[in-house]
Amino acid sequence: MVAKIPQLLYLDASESTVPPYSDPFHITARNGYLPSKLPSKTLSPAFDALTDILDDMPIQKEDGRPGLLANFKLGPLINSGKLPDLTHELENLRIPGSDGFDLTAITAAFRDYSFVASSYLLEPCWETYSTNRDNGYGLGRQILPSCIAGPLVKCAGILDIPAFMSYAASYALYNYYLVDPAKGHDEYTNIRLIRAFEKGLDPTSSEAGFILTHIHMVAQTGPLIEGAVELLTTIETSRRIGQKTASITENCSNGLEKMHKAMTIIETNMERMWANSLPREYMTYRTFIYGITKQSMFPNGVIYEGQWDNKPQFFRGESGANDAIIPLLDHVCEIPFPENPLTKIYVEFREYRPKPHRNFLTYVRGKATAIGVRELITTSGDLGLVVKYLRILEHVRSFRWRHWMFAREYILKHTLHPIATGGSPIITWLPNQLGAVMDLMEDVANGSGLWAVLEEGVWNGGGSGLSESEFRQVKSIMDQVVNLRTNLRKEVAKYCAQRSSGY
What we know:
Elements: H1 48-55, H2 74-79, H3 103-131, E1 143-144, H4 146-159, H5 167-171, E2 176-178, E3 191-193, H6 206-218, H7 221-240, H8 245-271, H9 273-276, H10 282-286, E4 303-304, H11 325-332, H12 341-348, H13 355-371, H14 373-378, H15 383-412, H16 429-447, H17 450-454, H18 468-499
Parallel strand pairs: 1-4
Antiparallel strand pairs: 2-3
Helix pairs in contact: 1-3, 3-4, 6-8, 7-8, 7-11, 7-13, 8-15, 11-13, 15-16, 15-18, 16-18
């Protein structure tokens, strides 16, 4: 069944059988949303001028010495002409014996050019912020030179993604290598960064921990994707052959169970962020992952010299919101979001994911709606299945709540800047999504008849069809939803009042 889904053409393929011309972010069961092959660590010798600058760029280089950004020397170096315009060299990054681009090499070039672009544009902000944090960020550079803009725009066009640093193709998912490839991604200490802004080339640094934790989470998405696809194909096939609802629901459990097990591991890895990356150290390297849209550093946008008739451009910055883990669950569970400006930002973030991720999530969103996943489970009469569905929604809630705690501890306690790196309001954006999933959890509990069972307060011996462990588990989940909803409203109101921004 999976092989018939064009968006998952290589799901069951091994690394060696994925065609060399394919986008490196084609989804496989082994790597999930990570690249199907390990990212290219280096560019061809034709790009040595760029590589030399990148090696010398971080605030702390790999050898421990200060780099260009430590003394605010990157901009003057670029402006002196040390980096030639190598746009024409991208034409040589093609699959031998064909006219097709080597998208692995193109993605590596996109990563490297986006790192130097963000560093160049935001270096003045880093100088302002590091001199006196109370002064905010000041202004960034308003023009991106053609030697950076040209290659960056060309790479972005080939990959069909925006021409700015992104979560997947730049900062995180295409920015690592394995110390021992044979050990794979399961062991956190086996993963290292290729590029960094501050101290990220030191694997014990907070910048490294921030990025590597995301990679370690995404490394577990293969089983999550398989479970979601199994759930969709089971329901679709069962409906097509006219199975009764009872038979359909029985077959749904396997997919939901796979998703639950995968999310349990993903959330365990996510929780390690606290130890891997210290909150008090986040604001330094965070300076370099801001975007252009809605940011005070770029009030009139950024001109990409020689591109788009030199008209100012507005791109959103790097953000974990561009990850595809939770959007997959949003779509497969059919979580409805309120129609408001915050949800519009959520939708806009979709364009910043790699094309294969976008295509897959579009497929899931459409398929789940067409076959009615949410309605089928809610009205199935099988409360055991409803509990399994609620466990997935609880993972969404838990994930987003932890993300909210990260925002609180890493950002809100350390800066008054009102806009997140991706251009969303720092206070209200995450609660918008949190409220949506908690609303659905209550609707499902009500619509399925589960609330009535829980309101009895004690397990009734199995008359409801729930085991005692299922009853205790789902009661704990729903009690927490009620309590956290109240707490979230209070926290949002407190932070908005403190900042007088409504953000």
